[in-house]
Amino acid sequence: MAADHSKQFWKRSAKLPGSIQPVYGAQHPPLDQRLTKNFIRDRSKVNALPMKGKKASSFHEFARSTSDAWDIGDDEEEDFPPPSFEALNSKVALATAAQVLENHSKLREKPEWSQSISDEVPINCKVIKSSSEAHLSRASSDSLARNPLQKQQSLPLRPIIPLVARISDQNASGMPPMTVREKTRLEKFKQLLSSTNTDLEELRKCSWPGIPREVRPVTWRLLSGYLPPNMERRKLTLQRKREEYFGFIEQYYDSRNEEHHQDTYRQIHIDIPRTNPLIPLFQQPLVQEIFERILFIWAIRHPASGYVQGINDLVTPFFVVFLSEHVEEDVENFAVQSLSKDILRSIEADSFWCMSKLLDGIQDNYTFAQPGIQKKVKALEELVSRIDDQVHNHFRRYEVEYLQFAFRWMNNLLMRELPLRCTIRLWDTYQAEPEGFSHFHLYVCAAFLIKWRKEILDEEDFQGLLMLLQNLPTIHWGNEEIGLLLAEAYRLKYMFADAPNHYRR
Questions:
Q1: Residue 7 CB coordination number (10 Å)
Q2: Which residues form the Rab-GAP TBC domain (predicted)?
Q3: For helices 285-301 and 341-360, what crossing angle results, to 10°?
Q4: Do 202 and 239 share a domain, yes or no?
Q5: Integer CA distances (angstroms), 356 to 245, 255, 370, 372, in order
Q6: Which structural domain range is residue 289 located in?
């Protein structure tokens, strides 16, 4: 009965603001055997097409042959058909076995096979920083030992990488957590923040290369415009804004059960468990209740857009940063119920106001038809065509539209493409950069796309390109990679932002 009711709800609310739309790759990836089966089954269908059809696979062909992640429930019990065994002639079997042994011995003698194996060794030699990474590294080496002919499979071989990299792993290369230079920068931050009137311009300059963890919460509050620069006014401002937020809770939150708000709240309630599903912190009921209140109050106070799927992701960096102010250990496994009620209330209110300040600058991304995202994706296409026409023409050749992968980049501010620790580092710069979330983000997306130009040019069909662009291997990224990405983005902004004649064809 519950299943029938849920199916009716999806059909009834398919066009509501914030309802799930068929955006490819919009889901978080927990690996699901049912999806894998669907993929293998669909892949075999694609492989069965004649060569003429495979030469230039179109988007429509891809859509018809790919099961959407939201449509799993209808055939959950479906499985592979049982194999049919037929009697084999013993001579044929012996001849086939001899042929297999001969082919295997030839493969072992090929220099390119040994070279490809040796090329993969450095990947497995990375410094392992989390227990999940170590476990999966051992699993990948075991599977390679059991399946020496894995490269002959029809599916593309991709390295097995950990699903979760810890939020605290700021440097993927194993650098020491605090260098002499970083200690000097921390002292500079403390000096700025403790002055009677904090110089926001100087604070932005210091924050651009990254903010030390100890001073990040108060720095984010200042750069968001939530906290005043005057030291004497800060305590009263925080008290007043936190009381104001919980006044909204008392005034509006009970209306979630009213008919005209019920669909909004229901959509929020559905999306919250999907927010970073592989990080235990966000699966705690108390944290999910906090997120539900924040998102519902924001939607009620911004009726022009209401709640749109993707806004739920934008709460997480603020929540983690303000939580880290009260937690010494890694926050991803921290039990929030151990904190006092007053601390939890302050974290919730501060997350709400800072997220609201962020969304004030990009609200046209979430109004009807999302015109802000449409414009940014078009601007990204024009920018890439000027930066790297080879990549741009490669997309055109295989009929890949920028909207098919860059919509998520703009809607979620690259949060689905990067580990959360990288998003926090990225947002240090976004808050320090003028119009960082609305304008500078475009150049970060362009630099991010060109970063994978070799992998993009190696893919020679529509499906392969889209799979690559929606599953880019950034799980091991840390501060160093984000720093290089931001440097390239700044270079592009310097070249193109103030040169409209060069920006367009």
A1: 12
A2: 210-434
A3: 40
A4: no
A5: 11, 20, 18, 17
A6: 228-360
Cβ(319)–Cβ(290) below 8 Å: yes
Structural domain count of the chain: 3
Q: Which helix (H) or strand (E) holds 486?
A: helix 479-496
Concatenated DSSP letters of 110-177: -HHHHHHHHHHHHHHTSPP-SHHHHHHHHHHHHHHHH-TTGGGSSSPP-----S---TT---TT---S
| Domain-located, residue 402 | yes
Q: pLDDT (tens digit, 0 to 9) for every residue of the chain, 505 residues total?
A: 544 544 444 444 444 444 334 433 343 444 444 444 454 445 444 444 444 444 445 555 655 655 444 444 444 444 444 444 444 456 666 776 677 667 656 555 544 433 433 343 333 334 334 444 444 444 444 444 444 334 333 334 434 334 344 565 444 333 455 688 888 999 999 999 999 999 999 999 999 999 999 999 999 999 999 999 999 999 999 999 999 999 999 999 999 988 889 899 999 999 999 999 889 999 999 999 999 999 999 999 999 889 999 999 999 999 999 999 999 888 999 999 999 999 999 999 999 999 999 999 998 999 988 999 999 999 999 999 999 999 999 999 999 999 999 999 999 999 999 999 999 999 999 999 989 999 999 999 999 999 999 999 999 999 999 999 999 999 999 999 999 999 999 999 999 877 656 545 5
Q: Pick the closest to residue 189 from 167, 204, 169 (CA basis).
A: 204
Widest distance between CA atoms in the chain: 92
Number of helices (H) and strands (E), helices first, in the chain?
A: 24, 0
Q: Is 422 part of a structural domain of the chain?
A: yes
* Residue 215 and residue 234 in one domain: no
Residues 478 and 420 in one domain: yes
Same domain, 463 and 489: yes
User: Number of C-alpha atoms within 13 angstroms, CB side, residue 502?
Assistant: 9
Please tell me whether residues 339 and 436 are part of one structural domain.
Answer: no
DSSP string, 166-198: -TT---TT---S--HHHHHHHHHHHHHHHSSB-
Name the CA radius of gyration of the chain, rounded. Answer: 25
Q: How far out from the chain centre does Cα 295 lie?
A: 19
> Alpha carbon of 60 to those of 26, 70, 463, 465: distances in Å?
18, 18, 11, 15
d(CA 331, CA 245): 25
- Whether 384 and 492 map to the same domain: the answer is yes
Q: What is the CATH number of the domain that holds 396?
A: 1.10.472.80
Instruction: Please state the pTM of the whole predicted model.
Output: 0.69
Tell me if 494 is assigned to some domain.
Answer: yes
- Residue that has been written with the tokens 């810890």 in this structure: 166
